[in-house]
Amino acid sequence: MSQIPLFISSQDLKEMTILNGSVDPDLFMQYIEIAQEMHIRNYLGANLYNRLQQGILAIKLGDTPNELTTEERLLIDDYIQPSLIHFAAAEYLPFASYQIRNGGVFKHNADDAVVVPIDEIRSLARKETSFAEYYAKLMVKFLCDNNRDYPEYSESPNEISPDKRVDNTLGIYLGKSINSNYKKNSY
Fold first, then answer.
1. Which of 74, 78, 81, 110 is deepest in the core (most CB within 10 A)?
2. Structure pTM?
3. Digitized pLDDT (tens) for each residue of the chain, 187 residues in all
4. 12 belongs to a structural domain
5. For residues 87 and 44, what is the distance between their CA atoms, to the nearest angstrom?
6. Nearby residues of 120 by Cβ (< 8 Å), 6 or more positions away
7. Could you tell me the sign of the dihedral formed by the alpha carbons of 25, 1, 185, 32, in that order?
8. What is the tally of structural domains in the chain?
């Protein structure tokens, strides 16, 4: 189980990506944490990232004064979750067919399936990254436009300042209202 409060659940990842519902969450939960730490924290900056984690933890502990504000819930539900879902899928895909056991590293091979070439897996991961970067770009724009509601976003700690640039890897326009399909409030 993750040591940090996560902005999405394993079910979110399964519902909004190509991951099959029968994939064991133990195989990919660490990739949600990796994606959250590497990508989302980078875009939010350490202060806002830490504040949102504290708010999620407060909800779980029943610490009402420190729970998420309405604005923070909006940020997580409409902007962070869509981006994180696709960043996590992109991080997991290259490792999906491998397992390490006592006898070594093994590649899973189902009886009725064809093993996908690594180039196709990389292509899927790039596509997921492109989706994630699209949503990250919306998130950064939203935060810049509404910075008065998120004072931690403007603060620059010694650790990590918000990255306000998003580099699209594929440059595909997906439209404005795609994130309305995402499940809300999984935290």
1. 81
2. 0.81
3. 457 999 999 999 999 998 888 888 888 999 999 999 999 999 999 999 999 999 999 998 888 888 999 999 999 999 999 999 999 999 999 988 877 778 878 777 767 778 788 899 999 999 999 999 999 999 999 999 999 999 999 876 556 667 776 665 545 444 554 455 555 565 6
4. no
5. 15
6. none
7. negative
8. 1
The number of beta carbons lying within 10 Å of the beta carbon of residue 1 is 7
> What's the token pair of residue 125?
């991961």
Helix 118-145 vs helix 81-92: angle between axes, to the nearest 10 degrees?
A: 160
> Is residue 146 in a domain?
yes
CB-CB contact of 81 with 8 (8 Å):
yes
Enclosing domain of residue 49 = 26-180
Distances (CA, A) of 115 to 1, 22, 105, 126: 29, 18, 16, 19
Q: Rounded CA gap, 141 and 11, in Å?
A: 27
- Beta-carbon contacts of 138 under 8 Å, excluding residues fewer than 6 positions away, are 79, 83, 179
In a 3-state reduction of DSSP, which class is residue 77?
Answer: helix
106, HSE (Cβ side, Cα atoms, 13 Å): 9
Tokens in use for 11?
């079910």
Angle at 123 (CA atoms; ends 120, 128), nearest 5 degrees: 130
Domain assignment present for 11? no
CA 169, 171, 173, 176 torsion: positive or negative?
positive
Which residue type does 83 have? S
